[in-house]
Amino acid sequence: MLPSSQSNYQSVSDSQIKLDRFIVCGLGSLGQHCVSILKEYGVVVNAIDQEQPKDLQIPNLLSLLEQLLIGDCRQAGVLEQANITHCRTIILATGNERVNIEAALAARLLNPQVRLVIRSDKQNLNQLLSQTLGNFIAFEPNQISASGFAIAALGDESIGYFQIEGHQFRVVKHQMKMSDRWYNKLHIYELNTPHRRVLNHAHSSSFLPKEFHQWEPEATLHPGDTIIYIEVTEQIRSLKKIAAQPKYNLQQFWREILFGNAWNNVKQKIVYFSQTLSHYQSLRVALICGITVLFLWCFGTLIYILNYPQSNISEAFYATAVLLLGGYGDIFGGINFKTPPEPAEHMPGWLRLFSLGLTLIGIGFVGVLYALLTDALLSFRFRFFNSYQPSIPQKDHIILIGFNRVGQRVAALLQEFKQPLLGINSTAPNVDFFKKIPIIIDSIADALGKANLTNSKSVVVVTEDSIENLEIALTVHAQSPTTRVVIRTYDRYFRDNVARLFPYAQVICTSAISAEVFVAAAFGENILSLFSFDTQTILVVEYMIEAGDTLNGLLLSEVAYGYGVVPILYQSLKRSPLKLMPSDNIQLAVGDRLIVLANSNSLQQIERGEMFPQTWQVEIEKVLAPDAIFDGANEISIISGCNIGTARKLMNNLPVHLPKALYKQQALHLVQRLTKIRVTARLKPCSEDRDS
Fold first, then answer.
1. List of domains in the chain
2. Angle 644-651/628-640 helices, nearest 10 degrees?
3. Cβ neighbourhood burial of 74 (10 Å; 0-12, 13-18, 19+)
4. Are the CB atoms for 545 and 594 separated by under 8 Å?
């Protein structure tokens, strides 16, 4: 929340603040939270609903509205009464997608410039409407909140995942241990690298701050401390890059033979193949039996041809096959290899004994092959039929209770994470889910007894009733205190109360999360992703800098520390290279692209142009080398943003105070850079000058 007094901010004059007007259609849970968050931005809000709101999840909702109209938001007359012609954005948040779309069309006819933010799950239609109507964006609350439930259910240190421009980002919440490589070795600011940024830090005895950058840069990490950071985990390789890899060719093959590397490669492949076979016992047995039968087949054919040169090769080949398949009686019952036919009793005794041996050996080895084939077919059959009813996981699985639209979306995301999953529902859900995950259809109390609860990783409760979700969470904790519990609610006040009373449970308010996305989109922001920690939602927001923007002309250090956001991607021009975790010294200009992590408070400050005050000053005392004057002026200009001419005058009149106040992290960075180039400088708060 913003402070009641504006004295803590540097703000633009009142004459520059534009009083915006917004309309919210549909005062269900989502609509009410949208109204509440919009009022935090200090704008005028009108609302339209078909009936007087009864279930007020925001207690002072009616006092937040300038006007509440009871009627159909699809009707032009109702929209005109809500002052649609002077409206900046209309949020259509009713539970009926058809009503939302029809109202969007009516609003566009009355106001061609109004921004349309609607609740809709029809992705193809939404894309077509966006292309046709313009200034249009649609969201589905279930999809917005599902990722939060899925990530919370994982139960590890990761609290957020998202992708931008082929790069995978991960947000981690880590509690320090004695064995950690960072333990008591680095200052916190030294953890920042080109691929990592610290978001928050708290000592073991304190709580995490609500805003970014509220940590001491020169503090060290100790056991029990909590640190939250974001890192780039990987760059996704495209198929084109994989296809461009050099291929093995004939010239390379002859070169390997020439230098004696070919045999080494063959030996390595043989060793690898033998190691692979050692993991598949049945396959190894089948391969041995098959090779043995094939050898006897060829050897027997050769023996018969040598003893009966007048016989046909094909007859010897097929006769050996018959013997291997147990046809000894068929061969010596009248089939002969000599033309004219020779009685079987005239065949040499050793050859008849050899034929009997072929039959006995063939029966043994071919029988083994038959057995292995039968086993494989039966196993496949059992897997085929059991695929419709997967077995219940025994341990380290996630239990999902509730198979509504949110539950189904959460299940799909957890399957993408390849997590063992068990569903519990009081009624039979969609038939397709029976083919994918095991589901227990029973009362919740009875189903928990069958779900191997004590061995589970976490339990996610997403039924439609918040009180029922709380009851289930308490039941789960009573039966298995170590199991992580994630529950769904629609009321953020209920969420905050439950989170305080039951710290073992993670409570996610779907309406509050979705409303923050809807409201941010209402101001024209492009929301790329989101994640949650400590009951607040962090949005991944993309800005395209335009003339008149509150970000235009600022250094990234001023954007980060002045508005409480974390820049994670910068691009100067549309086709210029991307810069991940960009430097604080970059100055924004029209046409630049910037992606930041921000909470609702930060977005409000950016919208109004209200920045935290710069309260630290740098005192430059002396230089230790002649060339340090030139280099020091450059560093001052780059880091503080002051004019290069001013910086050179300062360096020629030492000692001196930098006339421009800075943020603490910005000032500390400047002192560190000056020290490296042999300029003595120190950091002090601005209040010291006022006191003196």
1. 16-139 (3.40.50.720), 167-235 (3.30.70), 282-386 (1.10.287), 616-691 (3.30.1390.10)
2. 140
3. buried
4. yes
Say if residues 531 and 162 touch (Cβ distance below 8 Å). Answer: yes
Check residue 17 and give its pLDDT: 36
Element (H, E) at 541: strand 536-544
- What DSSP state is assigned to residue 455? G
Which residues 6+ apart lie within 8 Å of 4 measured at CB? none
Sheet-wide strand order for 679-685: 656-657, 616-623, 679-685
d(CA 100, CA 98): 5
Pairing of strands 167-175, 158-164: antiparallel
Strand order in the sheet with 398-401: 439-441, 421-425, 398-401, 458-461, 484-489, 505-509
Give the closest residue to 555 by CA, choosing from 543, 544, 567. 567
Across 153-302, the runs of DSSP E, i.e. the strands, are 158-164, 167-175, 196-202, 226-235
Token pair in block for residue 547: 């003339």
- 466-471 contacts, C-beta under 8 A, 24 or more apart: 466/490, 466/491, 466/494, 469/402, 470/498
Tokens in use for 131?
Answer: 């292309």
DSSP reduced 3-state for 70? strand
What is the Cα–Cα distance from 65 to 190, expressed in whole angstroms?
48
CA distance 681 to 620: 4
Evaluate whether 485 touches 493 at the Cβ level (below 8 Å): no
Cα–Cα distances (Å) from 188 to 227, 399, 465, 559, in that order, read 9, 38, 43, 20
**Residues 6 or more apart in contact with residue 193 via CB below 8 angstroms:** 581
Which residues, at least 6 apart from 160, have a Cβ–Cβ distance to it below 8 Å? 151, 169, 170, 171, 230, 529, 531, 532, 533, 538
Q: What CA–CA distance (Å, rounded) separates 321 from 312?
A: 15
Q: Quote the crossing angle between the two packed helices 141-154 and 405-416, to the nearest 10°.
A: 50
For 649, the 3-state DSSP assignment is helix
| ∠ CA 569-570-576, rounded to 5° | 125
- pLDDT score for 75: 94
pLDDT of residue 3: 34
CB 187 within 8 A of CB 217: yes
Token pair 């002309």 is found at: 553
Q: What is the pLDDT of residue 330?
A: 61
CA distance 478 to 454: 11
Name the burial class of residue 570, with classes exposed (0-12), middle (13-18) and buried (19+) by CB atoms within 10 angstroms of its CB: buried
Question: Which of 93, 132, 10, 86 shows the shortest CA–CA distance to 562?
Answer: 10
Tokens 């494989």 identify what position? 376
CB atoms within 10 A of CB 303: 16
CA distance linking residue 246 with residue 620, whole number of Å: 56
Q: What is the mean pLDDT of each run of 10 residues along the chain (692 residues)?
A: 36 43 93 92 92 85 92 94 92 93 94 93 88 90 84 81 86 84 75 88 77 83 86 58 41 47 54 51 69 76 72 72 68 50 58 73 73 70 54 88 87 85 82 72 87 90 91 92 90 84 87 90 88 80 90 93 94 84 92 92 90 91 86 89 88 87 90 90 74 45
